[in-house]
Specification:
By secondary structure, this protein is an alpha/beta fold. It is built from 14 helices and 15 strands. Strands 12-11-10-9-13-14-1-15 form an eight-stranded mixed β-sheet.
């Protein structure tokens, strides 16, 4: 089977990276007056999630330092729903892998799945909060504001979602997703978030915004007053920063998926897939006829959620899946299609050669193919030579290498062309 030759291409996005993260955290929290909300000596519970947020350990440590300098007694707790296989130990391990543990943070990390009820919303949704957090004098959340992988709205992933699904632990996550099946996840997040705020425990949050280069682009202290409106504004802003694959493709190849990359394993609004199995449901996003996934990240801990959105996967990926956390995650989120097993073979060559005739083209050299490392790292992409006119017409694209042959090794797998120049964000993995 004849393949088109390849180009290694760099895609340039605006650089919004913050130079002094600890200083920015200190200024934001000080200017917002967070410390004045508690008496000196008070305990403050800091909720931290489980996504692959760049610089997360640096950010959390700066928050801990702020509270300690204000004379408070901070501790960290996981605010991550059913992640870490829905166990207290597993969630502590997730944080530890990101460098968030007592020795590095200078304060305890207390992980538990015990919750307390915060009463019911007007529509009858019972809200929950981590028991240790509830017993503290105050609660602060650290979360990334970004688009959600399952739906589109004015509030998606962020502090409100963390107040609902994160603070509610496994018990809350399970119930909220069940309600969301009928009521819609944005509606549930708003309702439960408002109920959590009524508890009077939350002093505010630190919203993290990342640019398309996966850099920390903005850190914003968000007091409880006006938190809902402020999060809407921050989401609208960060959506304008979103990165994409630069063009439509017949086949999009991802080297890896993982929970550290996206809650759905891969960003659905990059690959243009739905966790329910829909093809190309998101407007203003490049369209892909087929998606092929090669592997899973080590720090996904075997959670293979998202593989069901692919048309083809490598046997390597399947061999690394731990089906216990994978099923727990998908069933808790009411998205069983996200863990269906696609077609699979034991080499890249077999997988790609099997996919190519399914895109409606008779000449295989006309099949357009693109390869990225994952949906967070979009600066470097390998594209087939038949896309050259589109590459040359896009001022944000620069050819770094090529054309070179579409090669396979003696096992039938592709070499890592991306590693020629593409840096890996080691801190996020």
């Amino acid at each position: 089977m004849e393949f088109s030759r390849l180009y290694l291409v760099k895609q340039t996005f605006p650089d919004r990276a913050i130079k002094d993260i600890p200083g920015t955290v200190q200024k934001e929290l000080s200017d917002a007056g967070f410390a004045s909300r508690l008496k000196p000596g008070s305990s403050i519970a800091i909720g931290v999630g489980s996504r692959g947020i760049i610089n997360i350990a640096t950010i959390v440590k700066a928050v801990v330092s702020f509270w300690k300098s204000a004379g408070m007694k901070p501790f960290i707790f996981p605010a991550m729903g059913s992640h870490g296989a829905a166990t207290a130990e597993g969630q502590a391990d997730v944080l530890a892998h990101y460098g968030i543990h007592e020795a590095t943070m200078g304060c305890p990390v207390i992980s538990s799945l015990e919750v307390v009820s915060l009463g019911k919303t007007e529509q009858g949704l019972e809200a929950f909060m981590d028991k240790n957090a509830f017993n503290a004098d105050g609660v602060m959340l650290i979360g990334r504001v970004k688009w959600h992988t399952d739906f589109a709205g004015k509030i998606e992933s962020g502090l409100f979602k963390m107040m609902a699904i994160g603070l509610g632990k496994f018990a809350g996550a399970q119930r909220y997703h069940t309600y969301a099946y009928k009521l819609g996840l944005e509606n549930v997040i708003r309702q439960v978030g408002r109920q959590v705020l009524k508890s009077g425990k939350v002093v505010g949050g630190l919203a993290i915004l990342e640019d398309a280069n996966h850099n920390t682009g903005q850190l914003t202290a968000v007091p409880v007053e006006g938190m809902e409106q402020r999060e809407e504004e921050l989401l609208a802003l960060v959506k304008t920063w979103q990165g994409h694959v630069p063009m439509d493709l017949d086949i999009l190849i991802l080297d890896q998926i993982g929970k550290n990359i996206s809650g759905a394993g891969m960003d659905t609004k990059v690959v243009n897939r739905s966790v329910t199995g829909l093809y190309n449901p998101w407007p203003n996003t490049p369209k892909f006829e087929r998606v092929y996934i090669r592997d899973i990240t080590d720090v996904s801990y075997g959670n293979g959620v998202g593989l069901g959105m692919a048309d083809m996967v490598h046997d390597r990926l399947l061999s690394q899946i731990d089906w216990v956390p994978t099923r727990i995650n998908a069933l808790t989120a009411s998205t069983p299609p996200a863990v269906r097993t696609p077609c699979h073979f034991d080499t890249d060559r077999k997988c790609i050669e099997t996919l190519m005739p399914t895109v409606g083209k008779f000449e295989m050299k006309e099949v357009t193919i693109g390869r990225i490392r994952n949906t967070m790292e979009l600066n470097y992409v390998v594209l087939t030579e038949n896309l050259l006119p589109q590459i040359e017409a896009n001022p944000a694209l620069e050819i770094l290498d090529g054309p070179f042959d579409f090669e396979f090794d003696e096992k039938g797998d592709m070499p890592d062309w991306l590693s020629r120049v593409a840096p890996v964000h080691a801190a996020a993995h």
